[in-house]
Design brief:
alpha/beta; TIM Barrel; eight-stranded parallel β-barrel; 12 helices; globular
Length: 296
């Protein structure tokens, strides 16, 4: 089992503690030293006030935040959980991801999803109802931009005559792509086009808001993973599929998730007032999970 730890870049209520370059560097370095495998950030470039008032959160630009984490570490993976590719022109997205992967020595895990916040799509001038098609288009174009020269393609709002991007990502053929979401569509997209799937715990009350089905316990997760394995067999996939999830409770044994086929667990450290508290909670989590510190 491998672990990705969320950086608290949403904590704009305490920016000096959590949302500065030195803060991100210190936290990322501590995550690496504690023996965890990755840090992750999320993506909300234009959240609306109603959503924020109802419990939504701010976020830094993902690739910029992860660049600060990359500069302070040497082996830690850099995980977008998730990057809403539909918000961006796919060539711009490909350039940003390739740059981060090249400069970090091949450490990017590109978690993507279709998105769910309609007003955010509106603020960015993107058709909310086309988000699934836009995600598929973006992933396809990014793969081509990372691996081919003279890319010619016409899509939603863009026309590329002959595009060649350099540098290529350090990861060949490209950084692993993990598709987020609990729906059958998200699962099939992951199995058919990506290297991983990232479902997540989701109570029924939140399903309509985040536009994805609920998963509330290990039995329901097992059912979804059985469906994924059935689709793997149906399409003849031979490449292993990573599965990222977050424990339902802090007391859950990671082995129970591993037994179902989960390969990565994500964790977010909540309820802390200072960076020192966050670092202490990080070390406690490593101890509870039996993760040993890395030398140096």
């Amino acid at each position: 089992m491998r672990f990705s730890i969320g950086l608290p870049t949403d904590r704009v209520d305490a920016p000096d503690e959590f949302v500065t370059g030195p803060a991100i560097a210190e936290m990322a370095a501590a995550v690496e030293a504690a023996g965890f495998d990755a840090v992750y950030v999320t993506d909300h470039p234009a959240p609306d006030d109603r959503w924020l008032a109802g419990g939504g959160h701010h976020a830094l630009e993902p690739l910029v935040a992860l660049a600060f984490a990359a500069a302070a570490t040497s082996t830690l993976r850099l995980h977008t959980h998730v990057y809403v590719a539909a918000y961006r022109n796919p060539f711009l997205a490909a350039k940003g991801v390739a740059t981060l992967d090249a400069l970090s020595g091949g450490r990017v895990i590109l978690g993507v999803a279709a998105g769910y916040l309609r007003p955010e799509f509106g603020a960015l001038g993107v058709d909310f109802d086309a988000r699934n098609d836009l995600l598929d288009e973006s992933v396809s174009v990014m793969k081509r931009a990372w691996t081919k020269d003279a890319v010619a393609v016409e899509g939603a709002g863009f026309r590329a005559r002959s595009v060649t991007q350099r540098p290529r990502p350090a990861t060949r053929p490209h950084p692993p792509i993990w598709v987020g979401g609990n729906s059958t569509l998200a699962m099939r997209r992951a199995v058919e086009t990506a290297q991983g799937w990232s479902p997540f715990p989701n109570p029924p009350a939140a399903s309509a808001t985040v536009k994805t089905p609920s998963i509330t316990n290990l039995d329901e997760l097992a059912e979804r993973l059985d469906a994924a394995r059935a689709h793997v067999a149906a399409v003849g996939r031979t490449e292993p599929l990573d599965v990222s999830f977050s424990r339902f409770t802090e007391d859950d044994d990671p082995a129970d998730y591993a037994a179902l086929g989960v390969t990565w667990l994500t964790a977010q450290l909540d309820g802390v007032a200072t960076r020192a508290d966050w670092l202490e909670q990080l070390r406690a989590l490593a101890g509870a999970l039996g993760i040993g510190p890395r030398p140096g």
